[in-house]
C-alpha cells in the first residue's frame, strides 16, 4: 500500500474536518499545515492530539518532498492560484467548493490538472450521505424513474452566528448564494438525475432582515433547469433564511416519487398506495462540516491515486455543477434564460 502524506492549506473550520477524516484512513497522514497564523503546537495538540510541520509560506510547503497531496481549505477566491501552484509542483489536489468564482477560473484549474497529470477531486461530499446513496440505488432499480421532475433545495441562514459570515458577505469572496453554498444542491440534482441542463432561468432576491443587508449579492435564488432528457429541475439556494438547516429533495418519476425520508412507488407490492412509505436513512440535515461524510469521499480519492483511476468525486463532474451555477447567476443578472453552451471552452 502506497503511503500518502497530506498538506493542508488554510487552518480554519473546514480544515479541521479534513484533518480528522484524512487521519482516519489507512496509510494516510497529515504532515503539514500552511496558515497565515503562527499556530502554536499547543493548539495543534489540543485539536488533533499531534503536531504538524507549520508553514506560513505556501511555496515552502509545496517544496516539501514528503507531501504528496494538497488539500485546499482556504476562502473561495484563493483556490485557482493555489491549485495551479500545487499542480505545477506535482501534487495531487483536494479542492473545497466552490473551486472558482468564475468560469475562467474553473477552466484554469481544469487545464492545470490535465497538464500536470495529477489526480484532483472536489468536495461535494453531500453525495455520500446515506439518503443520497439510497436514492441513487432506488433510481438504478427503476423504483422511481425515469425522472421528469427533480427539486433539490438548500436552506441555510448564513448570518453573523456563522464563522464565514464576515468574509462571505463580500461578492469578491462569496460570489453568490449558489456558489458559496447552494452548489451542493445543484450538484446533488445533477448527480441524482445523471442529466445535463441545456438552459437555465434564475431569479434572485434577498431578505429584508438587517443582518442580511450587509451581503453584496442576492442571498436567495431559484433556478429552473431545462434538461437534455426533456425533464425539468429546480434548485433553490436560500442563505438568508431564519429557520433550521434544510436540504430538501423531491424526485418525481414515471414509477413513483422520493421526498426526503419518504417514497412512493407502484413497483412494489404490499405498500399502502394511499400514503408515503418511510425511509430509515441519514438525511443531509446539517450545515456543520463535522457532520459531513468526508471519510468515504477521501477514501475513494486515496484509492484513485493508488489504483491510478478517475476519482468518483471527479473534477469533471464538479465542473458541470459550477458551469450550471455560473449560468444561473448570469441568468439572474440578465433577467433572461441562459443556454449552458454560452459558458464553454
Describe the structure.
The protein is α/β, with parallel strands linked by helices. It has 2 domains: 4-124 and 293-311, Rossmann fold (3-Layer(aba) Sandwich), CATH 3.40.50; 126-289 and 321-342, Dihydrodipicolinate Reductase, domain 2. The chain has 11 helices and 15 strands. It has a 9-stranded mixed beta sheet. Strand 11 (246-253) and strand 12 (256-259) form a beta hairpin. Helix 1 (13-23) packs across helix 10, helix 4 (79-88) packs parallel to helix 5 (103-116) and helix 9 crosses helix 11 (315-334). The chain is globular, with a radius of gyration of 20 Å.
Give descriptors for this structure.
345 residues, alpha/beta, Rossmann fold, Dihydrodipicolinate Reductase, domain 2, 2 domains, nine-stranded mixed β-sheet, globular
Give a quick precis of the structure:
This protein is of the alpha/beta class and 345 residues long. It has helices at residues 13-23, 41-48, 58-62, 79-88, 103-116, 130-140, 165-168, 171-174, 177-193, 294-307, 315-334, and strands spanning 4-9, 28-34, 53-55, 69-72, 92-95, 120-122, 147-155, 197-205, 220-227, 232-238, 246-253, 256-259, 262-265, 277-278, 338-339.
Break the fold down into its secondary structure elements and pairings.
Layout: E1 4-9, H1 13-23, E2 28-34, H2 41-48, E3 53-55, H3 58-62, E4 69-72, H4 79-88, E5 92-95, H5 103-116, E6 120-122, H6 130-140, E7 147-155, H7 165-168, H8 171-174, H9 177-193, E8 197-205, E9 220-227, E10 232-238, E11 246-253, E12 256-259, E13 262-265, E14 277-278, H10 294-307, H11 315-334, E15 338-339
Parallel strand pairs: 1-2, 1-4, 2-3, 4-5, 5-6, 7-10
Antiparallel strand pairs: 7-11, 8-9, 8-15, 9-10, 11-12, 12-13, 13-14
Amino acid at each position: 500500500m502506497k503511503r500518502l502524506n497530506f498538506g493542508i492549506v488554510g487552518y480554519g473550520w473546514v480544515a479541521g474536518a479534513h484533518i480528522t477524516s484524512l487521519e482516519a484512513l489507512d496509510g494516510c497522514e497529515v504532515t503539514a499545515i500552511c496558515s497565515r497564523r503562527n499556530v502554536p503546537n499547543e493548539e495543534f495538540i489540543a485539536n488533533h492530539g499531534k503536531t504538524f510541520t507549520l508553514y506560513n509560506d505556501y511555496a515552502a510547503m509545496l517544496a516539501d518532498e514528503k507531501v504528496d497531496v494538497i488539500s485546499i481549505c482556504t476562502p473561495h477566491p484563493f483556490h485557482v492560484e493555489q491549485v495551479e501552484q500545487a499542480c505545477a509542483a506535482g501534487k495531487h489536489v483536494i479542492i473545497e467548493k466552490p473551486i472558482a468564482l468564475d468560469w475562467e477560473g474553473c477552466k484554469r484549474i481544469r487545464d492545470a490538472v490535465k497538464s500536470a497529470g495529477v489526480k484532483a477531486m472536489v468536495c461535494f461530499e453531500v453525495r455520500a450521505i446515506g439518503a443520497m446513496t439510497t436514492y441513487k440505488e432506488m433510481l438504478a432499480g427503476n423504483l422511481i424513474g425515469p425522472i421528469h421532475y427533480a427539486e433539490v433545495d438548500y436552506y441555510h441562514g448564513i448570518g453573523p452566528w456563522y464563522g464565514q459570515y464576515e468574509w462571505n458577505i463580500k461578492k469578491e469572496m462569496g460570489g453568490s448564494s449558489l456558489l458559496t453554498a447552494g452548489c451542493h444542491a445543484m450538484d446533488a440534482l445533477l448527480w441524482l438525475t445523471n442529466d445535463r441542463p441545456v438552459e437555465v432561468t434564475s431569479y434572485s432576491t434577498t431578505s429584508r432582515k438587517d443582518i442580511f443587508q450587509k451581503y453584496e449579492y442576492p442571498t436567495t435564488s431559484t433556478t429552473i433547469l431545462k434538461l437534455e432528457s426533456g425533464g425539468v429541475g429546480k434548485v433553490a439556494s436560500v442563505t438568508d433564511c431564519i429557520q433550521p438547516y434544510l436540504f430538501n429533495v423531491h424526485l418525481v418519476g414515471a414509477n413513483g416519487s422520493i421526498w426526503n425520508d419518504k417514497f412512493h412507488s407502484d413497483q412494489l407490492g404490499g405498500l399502502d398506495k394511499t400514503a408515503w412509505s418511510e425511509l430509515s436513512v441519514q438525511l443531509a440535515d446539517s450545515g456543520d462540516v463535522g457532520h459531513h461524510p468526508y471519510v468515504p469521499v477521501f477514501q475513494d480519492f486515496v484509492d484513485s491515486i493508488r489504483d491510478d483511476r478517475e476519482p468518483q468525486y471527479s473534477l469533471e463532474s464538479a465542473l458541470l455543477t459550477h458551469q450550471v451555477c455560473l449560468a444561473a447567476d448570469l441568468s439572474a443578472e440578465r433577467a433572461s434564460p441562459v443556454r449552458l453552451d454560452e459558458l464553454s471552452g
